[in-house]
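question for whoever is on the cluster today: can someone run the full assembly for these? two chains, 715 residues total. i dont have access anymore since they changed the login thing
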Amino acid sequence: MVGVLRHLARPVWQGAGRLTTPLLPDDFLTVVDPLWSARWPAGRVEVVRAETADATTLVVRVGRGWSGHRAAGQYVPVGVAVGGVLHWRTYSITTPPDGSGRFAITVRAIPDGRVSTHLAHRARPGETLRLGPVQGDFVLPDPPPARLLFLTGGIGITPVVAMLRALALRTGCRPDTVLVHSAPDADRVVFGGELRAMAARESGFTLYEHHTRREGRLDRARLDALCPDWAERETWACGPDGLLAFAERAWRDADARHRLHLERFRLPSLAAPGSGSGGHGGRVRFTRSGVETDADSATPLLDVGEAAGVVMPSGCRMGICHSCVSPLSAGRVRDLRTGDVHGEPGDLIQTCVSAACGPVHIDL
Amino acid sequence: MAAALALAQPEADAFGQELDRIRAEVLAERGAEDARYIRTLITVHRALEAGGRAALAVSLLPPAWLAGTAMLTTAKILENMELGHNILHGQWDWMRDPAVHSTTWEWDFPTPAAAWKHTHNDLHHTWTNVVGRDRDLGYVALRMSEDQPWHPVHLLQPLYGGPLLAPLFEWAIALYDLEPEAVVQGRKSVRAFLGDLAGMARKAARQFTKDYVLFPLLAGPSALPCLLGNLTANVTRNIWAHTVIFCGHFPAGAESFTEDEIEGESRGEWYVRQALGSANIDGGPLLHILTGNLSHQIEHHLFPDLPSNRYAQIAPRVRKLCEKYGIPYTSGPLPRQYASTWARIWRLAIP
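^ ran it for u. tokens below:
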């Protein structure tokens, strides 16, 4: 029955498009309620819950356009308007897929982090967020392995807490699970209360908290003491770079690298944000044309592309007409009019007044 | 012709630098309030459009016809001017919202957005009022500057420049944006022209079908009044757009330039030319919104990609700057500017 309705809905929708042209029916629905939009998937913050002094959980009700999530441990791109500007960040979903039309993310405010401080300290119920498609293969196999180790640090607990919650919902045999979590102190363990209660309740789940303020960084000896059979356990690790580097080293030394699954929050960036004030150009890659060339910090990317034989959209060549805007897929650029360095993947930049600031990828 | 262009380059550049500072201040302030403005306007437009269509569906009742036509007319005016024109200029690209962006926006006008962005944002805004470069200076068909050669056909321009052009403005602009004269002159290939023509025809067909076939059919017994309501809305919007746009560059005081005059033009001199070539319309906030803030034509031409809601705020400062540098700032109420435009159309109809 539902299938038949779906079958009928498409021509009806296309017919409606003839009436709303050049807009789509979706453009009208979205002004009534952004959650009705299929074109620009959105969600609405329903609950805001402080976890620690600087970490906050947001429960988000999803709109009809969102494709949903497949497994605990995946992450979702979230678009947040800060100062009128839409910024995208990805956050691990902390709830297992449960068909409730809701998910939760937990955001820790990074000092000077525009988006994270907004979500952690200023988000209120009712705020609308844009949502991207869920991604990530940092997930447990089904069925899960018999013996599991989770190694997490700080806010890196977020994908793992989703897995733990999913495991707790499983009926029947549950794996023998150990969580080694590293945090500055007990108060700053995100989900501390819930994890401790879970450890007390579930016989198969053991929690070790490692408090770095008192005990220093987690090392091999400490890991041996906490979980002697760590190298034999299928392991999922997520946390700061230092912790992940330690894990990679330890598991490689124990010939167990194949049992270690890693999740990094920070993607390796081409140029460190904010590093560009000195004024270097960089290597420019036009990804669709397959052309690579060097650019200095004073030549507009439009000229750089044209000199390299790329078909570049262009117009006034002075920054007023926006005919040349092209998608930036990586790197940062300098606005030649103001000297401002800006750019995030997916930004549309005016190539006629933007110069490379470090390595740059343009989607042309 | 353009006496004030004789402003020495250092002075022109100083003028430009002061304008750049105004621009930088607006950029620094631009934020959530501006975003709320454009989103509110989008909501108002879509509500008026939906309300207008609904009322016209039962427009056998005269009050429904009146209300529906008024709502649809207002919706179409907002959609074309404060939304379409300004969003296509990239004024809202900074929000990084793909739903409100110059590269994705399409408007309720037969001209496809891409064609418009080329002829308007690029050609017209870069070469404003330069004879031989700015096609908008008379739209190829009208003689709007003494520097343009006279042709006997211009004797008829008081007829085809207004009474004929205004009601059909959207269709004339669609044709004009195909740059047919460039094909004759060999600047545009026949192939490119036919490609553009096909794109325009596809869009125009959808536009036409929507207003003159589908909505009237859906209105059943109200088909005829619905069709007439849609026609009224389109024609009124066309006449209004024609009026506002002709008042932007053609009233007395708005100057035109020759290619020789702009040889080696600096950025400061470009600013001077934009100020000299444009004219404002005085009025209240409602007038400004209904003209898509093209009533601030001078500010718009100086800063085509600043959000339109900011033009009113910077206008007093721009006017003061112009006074300081002795650059005429042309502004007046709508009836006066419109009459002045018509005086020019009549005067230049004869050699």
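summary bc i know u wont read the tokens: Residues 267-278 of chain A have pLDDT under 50 and may be disordered. The CA atoms of residues 68 and 134 of chain A lie 7 Å apart.
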